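S1.2 Input.
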Amino acid sequence: MSDTKTKQPLLQVKDLKQHFPIEAGFILKKQVGAVRAVDGISFDVNEGETLGIVGESGCGKSTTVRSISQLYTPTSGSVIFNGLDLIKAKGNELLDARKNIQMIFQDPYASLDPRMTVRTIISEPLEIYKKRGLLDQNMDKSAIENRVEELMERVGLNRAFKNRYPHEFSGGQRQRIGIARALALNPKIILADEPVSALDVSIQSQILNLLHDLQKELGLTYLFIAHDLAVIEYISTRVAVMYLGKIMELSRSSDLYKNPLHPYTKALLSAAPIPDPVIERKRQRIILTGDVPSPNKERVGCYFYDRCPSRMEKCKTNIPGMTRIDEHHEVACFLYE
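S1.3 Output.
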């Protein structure tokens, strides 16, 4: 892993917000509110590491990576990659930066065009960048063909299958195709949006091991989204815990799982099953009452206030900032001020 103490972070996300307007009226549409999917989050991703983002469904994890990659245009904030603010970048400048930021999508069935062969799917990024003059012009048809075959072998696919269509492959093989496509342009960072959640458990481990091996071989950096705590623990260097569009806790993976601080993190970890029946019977789960509040409502206090077993009066009207516990551990909770 790279020495992150002497280098600038590869990716810096600062006060990122992604609000989706709620409109009323059939003809003269008027905005009457907004869904605050991501509501002001900040974090860094260092070169060579894996930052995992975990949280329950609907907390804003997938929206975060789509906003970073500019698939969504963020409402406000900044996404700085190698010194360039992607939100302000336009045209070829943005396209050139996005060559180094690729995505692996959650659903291997929906993320591949059923009318395209594997060869076309993997080579498409190369063809697009070549036409825009952002790829080595020596990358002729033969070189692209060789690149496709090389990528297929690297992710564990038989190069003889390059003329087949996605429906001829299993879910795990389709996800390998998606990984090969993400690697085509030699990116520096890969945004993995729950890449194993749609796969069988036995296949999940194969894909996770593949991603781990690729990281070591190619020096990749990952921003890895998942709701499975075991997956995040296995693959992540650091972990950010999200709730209702906010980051509640940010820490090294080992520290977070041994010493969770935020009441939400504690509840989340207590709900994860442990493969030891003796420990599982003895441990005490933290049961959260109530439902997750609506993301349409603007908050004036702590986002976790309604369900927090440790809430205080000040939490009702004040939003806690991130408190640094030590060099690698931050938590958004008044209990640690």
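S1.4 Remarks. DSSP finds ten helices and twelve strands in the chain.
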